Amino acid sequence: MAVETLERPPAETTEAPVYEDDARIVRYKIRTGMFAWMAHRLSGIAIVIYLILHVWGLKALTDRDAFNALIAGYHAPIFKIGEFLLLAAVAYHAFNGLRIVLIDFLGWSPKQKRLFWTLAAVTAAIIVIGGYPSIYAVVTYFTGG
Amino acid sequence: MKLNVKVRRYDPESGKPPYWATYEVPAEPMDSALSLLLHIKWHLDGTLTFRKSCAHGICGSDAMQINGENKLACSVLVQDLVKGDGDTISFAPLPGSPVIKDLVIDQTRFFEKYRAVMPWLINDTPPPERERLQSPEEHAIIEDATKCIMCGACTHSCPSTWADPDYLGPAAMLKAYRYTFDSRDAGSAQRLPIVDSKDGLWKCYTIFNCVQACPKEIDITRWLSALKRKAVTAQY
Amino acid sequence: MTFSHDIVIVGAGGAGLMAALYAREGGADVAVVSKLHPLRSHTGAAQGGIGAALGNEEEDHWLWHAFDTVKGSDYIGDQDAIEIMCQDAPRTIVELEHYGVPFSRNKQGKISQRRFGGHTRNFGEAPVRRACHAADRTGHTILHTLYDQCVKNHVRFYDEFQVLDLLMTPDGETCGVVAYEILTGEIHTFHAKIVCFATGGYGRAFKTTSNAHAGTGDGMAIVLRKGLPLEDMEFVQFHPTGLYRLGILITEGARGEGGILRNNEGERFMERYAPTVKDLAPRDLVSQCIYKEIREGRGINGKEYVHLDMTHVGEDVLLHKLPEITVFSRTYMGIDPVKQPIPVAPTCHYAMGGIPTDHDGRVERAQRGSTVPGLYAVGECACVSVHGANRLGTNSLVDLVVFGRRAGIRMAQEIQDRRNEPKPLLPDDPQKPTRDLLDAILSRTEGEPVVAVRTDLQQTMMDNVSVFRNEETLTQALADLKALRERARRVVVRDKGKRFNTELMDAVEIGFMVDYAEAIAAGAKYRTESRGAHSREDYPQRDDEHWLKHTLFYSDGQGGYEFGDKKVIITRFQPKERKY
Amino acid sequence: MRTYGTNRSNALNWFLHRITGTFLIFLLITHFWVQHYDAQTATVVAQTLSSEQIEQGVLPEYSSEARAAVKAKFGPDATVTPYDVVMLRLADPVYAVLWKGFNILFLIFALHHGFYGLNNILSDYIRNDMGRLVARVLSWSLALVLLVVGLYAVITAGWTY
Ligand SMILES: Cc1cc2nc3c(=O)[nH]c(=O)nc-3n(C[C@H](O)[C@H](O)[C@H](O)COP(=O)(O)OP(=O)(O)OC[C@H]3O[C@@H](n4cnc5c(N)ncnc54)[C@H](O)[C@@H]3O)c2cc1C
Ligand code: HEM
Ligand code: SF4
Ligand code: F3S
Ligand code: FES
What is the pLDDT of residues B125-171, one digit of tens each? Predict the structure, then answer.
């Protein structure tokens, strides 16, 4: 004989809430976690775009001249800078991805801030060392060395 | 000292769009942020509206955005917000829910999500004569999560909720954790499918804004990760 | 709008939710109307524990618990009710555990228990571990678990609806309430067979209090305005250890875990006043002792506080058993209790008095048995009376859950019995008095703001009606209240809108506050003895010959009032001198 | 009241996303090393060409190791273009299979990981179910096209040398 109160008209409030389209992105103080995520998301998108172009470019692999021309194109200064940015994006994305995996799989959440700074340092080192050739090439090109 | 208190005001009845109002409020370093609002309400402008009750961080009424971050107004002191005389403190409603008036938000959706995760102990075996036993170790697994006061600071600080209002959000899923990992609970089979869905766990991108905002210093992400692992292993 | 339910429960704290849950499980259609969202209720603030003779840690017996409660009440608690409470407590707490309350556990996996003021073994021999707890957030975990269960059982919640009036038929039968929906500013009628008040305490009438801003005693005032009495209002509990100036509570559990009170000489002064239980003496005594120390110049730095010393109990205990109060001290006082003593002073904490009820929560209009049809009250706003002149720590939560449960079961039964009867008819235009009241406030443009009246009310209550009282201060208080009543009727609000107008509700609440403050002051003046928390300097002795009775306060709402008496029920424990 | 969480489990996809991510770290390191830094096999060298040079068909200069290796493989007259350096790796049948296997794996992982991630983002910011469906279909179609293109390129590479 229990009464089903759920069948009565809704009454949390008599005024039904209206959900305007709330802002999707909100101004909020940026701390490590949110920075890490924003950068991860942006780098992820950047790499996907690169991936699309890159795989599309692979079509040239079947044609000697086309492939050579493609690679030559990659040696323009603008592409050298792009190459560096790609490295930075990938290195950051990879290491932050690792951080996320460690947090989710090994429960390292209490150490997340330390983890962030440690991996940031490693990432910076890799970007500097790995990116040196590209930067060197661009710099010598512009300084006419 | 004297502070400039900036408050995000909005009264839909007035037909005016939201605006920032600034009040000059006397304050001591050890005053809570809530006492600034009370001063305005009582002495400067009675129309300023916000929720409050316990005044010491246990009822969860007065979560709001203070200086750009979600906090409980009664649990944060002036000295932790400003350096000195003439500085500015800003108050805005929690972001990501409709505003009813000034700092008061509509929490209907927040509590709908709470209800969605079956936030109660599920155990159909007849209870024993006395209490169900639970070792201190088993209790420790959920203790942190039981501190939650449902203030909403976390869910409204999560960029994933701002982007997708249907995301269950940290507060609701922490409740799911609290019951799923309770050694007395036998409801995983019912509760996990709810959090293991497009609205659930997988929209947590370990952003940690929730942990940063939580006035009870609950390591929410840690418990959500545990719930994620449980959801994954439950698939096999 | 008119909402119709079998049972309408006003207030969603521990008492309201407990009643709702059991009434719902008994099959009734239950609505809970609360001015705060249920989880914001002040039950969430209860820290230290809930007492029950579970005997998980050491031998214990419900009769010992009953004895302690009777003695704590200074022999004015009704012993039949106390026996029911202490006998029912263990099973009720086990039920709470089954509902999922995450109690702290001992090594055997049972509910952990600790010492608390006034709780003793074998009729007063030594402190006993009786307070079941969840660290120092016992009330919070109970409140949340009960809410979870109510949601599960589809109890209907009307959140942020403030009840302003009780509806009765001309024959004095309860038929509903009138509530103001804070979100929309609309007035609604709730039509019901049974109304149950669970609106909590009134601490906000005092300047220093551990109670929430919402603790404005609305339920008591509403009932009083209907010509019904309030019982034993003179007994106001001051908790000994509120944070200095703020009044935020430091649970008695702190002393249960070994904390010591010291004066400016570093002396453990409670040893002098209560040699057996020392710092774990009941609250009335400790608060009075603290005030005596302060008056005799032994307050710290000549100020009005003493020290609660936790430095010897160790960081481990503080962080694991008393985490919340450790955080409070750090946040609000900038003090680390591991290293420094905490500045504390008595703070207004609990209403022993309230709406008189029987063991099942049924409200009585005069003598025992004179129940008001369809009206119930439970929790702090009610007076069963199990706390008498002084409540023991942990006994309030027990009161809420035991009598909340009993009322819930009883209400469901009553609905069953009356299922073929229609609801009593609503009066014509039931909302009129409420609408008039609100319109009067909203249309006023000249007058004082609410805060002026409230501040003066809190000040006079604090100065004249707190731990020590005498003829002179009480006369002063009553005179002040007379003036305040007039002022409260002329307050003006700036917010004239309909939407979430909390200022308007503040203005209504100040009217309530004056009404029950008068009951407190008048009751204190009437009772010319000292008993429990009621300490008259001009009548320092307990006077069983004249005053071993309850007082019932009736008011005409215009400053005129009268008293009735009610017998105290004594079963096993004859009144004795109270020594600790 | 809206109902939440009524869809089927997403746990496996989420888990795979992390697994592919973790594998990608190793795959990427190898990929980058071979393409950029290994003196013998790097198709990409740290040399910048101006646009005129590119128009004139100038090709980057390879390291002496790379040149020696190409000449050793394809005879002393062989020119050393990026294409030849790639083919160097594919000429040895054993290595060719290994490299092709590697690249196929890399391709699949990167595409799954990248497009799953992209879908996450899209479903965050697109709120209606129809929009989400359209975005999902479009993005996975693109992924499929890329998979075909990529597989074709990787598998057929070296056949015509
Ligand atoms: C800081 C503190 C610590 C405590 N610690 C302990 C302890 O350790 N052990 C113990 O036993 N006791 C303790 N107590 C006492 C105990 O917590 C309270 O007595 C008890 O919680 C009161 O519960 P309640 O359900 O009666 O009221 P509350 O929990 O106060 O709830 C009142 C409800 O009524 C509603 N309400 C009020 N007015 C209206 C209205 N006009 N219309 C609609 N709704 C209304 C409110 O919204 C609220 O939901 C403590 C009290 C305090 C203040
Ligand atoms: C190098 C090793 C990589 C690792 C360890 C890695 C790890 C991760 C992880 C763990 C996520 C999930 C983030 C989240 O859900 O919060 C992620 C997201 C993503 N990854 Fe990767 N990834 C790697 C490489 C790549 C590559 C090569 C691409 C591009 C093709 C890519 C594109 C993306 C995209 C688009 C997202 C979605 C971002 C988001 O949801 O915010 N990742 N990555
Ligand atoms: S988890 Fe923390 S922030 Fe979130 S609702 Fe609970 S207490 Fe508030
Ligand atoms: S901020 Fe949001 S994304 Fe996860 S870690 Fe917290 S819920
Ligand atoms: S007022 Fe209760 S949490 Fe701040």
Answer: 999 999 999 999 999 999 999 999 999 999 999 999 999 999 999 99
pLDDT at residue A76 tops 90: no
| Count of residues in chain C | 580
Cis status, amide bond into B183, omega within 30 of 0: no
Chains touching C by CB (3 or more pairs below 8 Å): A, B
Sort residue B118 into left (φ over 0), alpha (ψ -120 to 50) or beta.
left
Lowest average pLDDT, out of B147-151, C150-154, C248-252, goes to C248-252
**Atom of ligand 4 minimally distant from the CA of B205:** 3
Mean pLDDT of C408-417: 96
Determine, yes or no, domain membership for A24: no
pLDDT at C324: 86
List pLDDT tens digits, range C181-228.
999 999 999 999 999 999 999 999 999 999 999 999 999 999 999 999
Instruction: Give strand pairing partners of C115.
Output: C129
Subunits that touch chain B (at least 3 Cβ pairs < 8 angstroms)?
Answer: A, C, D
The per-residue pLDDT of chain C, averaged, comes to 94
* Residue B63 CA, distance from chain mean position: 7
Q: Which two tokens stand for residue C282?
A: 């009941």
ipTM field = 0.92
Residues facing B66 on adjacent strands: B69, B91
CA atoms within 13 A on the CB side of D40: 8
Q: Kindly state if the Cβ of C508 falls inside 6 Å of ligand 1.
A: no
Query: Would residue A103 count as lying in a domain?
Result: yes
**Measured between CB atoms, does B31 come within 8 Å of chain D?**
no
Question: Per-residue pLDDT for C474 more than 80?
Answer: yes
What's the total number of domains in chain A?
A: 1
Give dist(CA B164, CA B96) in Å, integer. 10
Average of per-residue pLDDT values in chain B: 94
Report the DSSP beta bridge partners of residue B21.
B7
Q: From the CA of D117, which ligand is nearest? A: 2
Question: Does A11 fall in a domain?
Answer: no
CATH class of B108-235: mainly alpha
Single out the residue of C217, C197, C211, C206 nearest to residue C46, CA to CA. C211
Sign of CA dihedral B125, B128, B129, B131: negative
Looking at the annotation, which residues of C are catalytic? 283
**pLDDT of A119:** 94
The residues spanned by each domain of chain B are 2-105, 108-235
Residue C428 phi, psi dihedral angles, 5° rounding: -65, 140
Choices 3.40.50.2300, 3.10.20.30, 3.30.1330.10, 3.30.2320.30: CATH for B2-105: 3.10.20.30
Rounded to whole angstroms, how far apart are CA atoms C297 and D37? 82
The CATH number of whichever domain residue A77 belongs to comes to: 1.20.1300.10
CA of B43, closest CA in chain A: separation in Å? 30
Alpha-carbon span C464 to C461, nearest angstrom: 5
Structural domain includes residue A61: yes
In this prediction, residue A9 has a pLDDT band, given cuts at 50, 70 and 90, of very low
Determine which of B104-108, C413-417, D71-75 has the lowest per-residue pLDDT on average.
D71-75
Q: Provide the residue ranges of all domains of chain D, joining segments of one domain with +.
A: 7-156
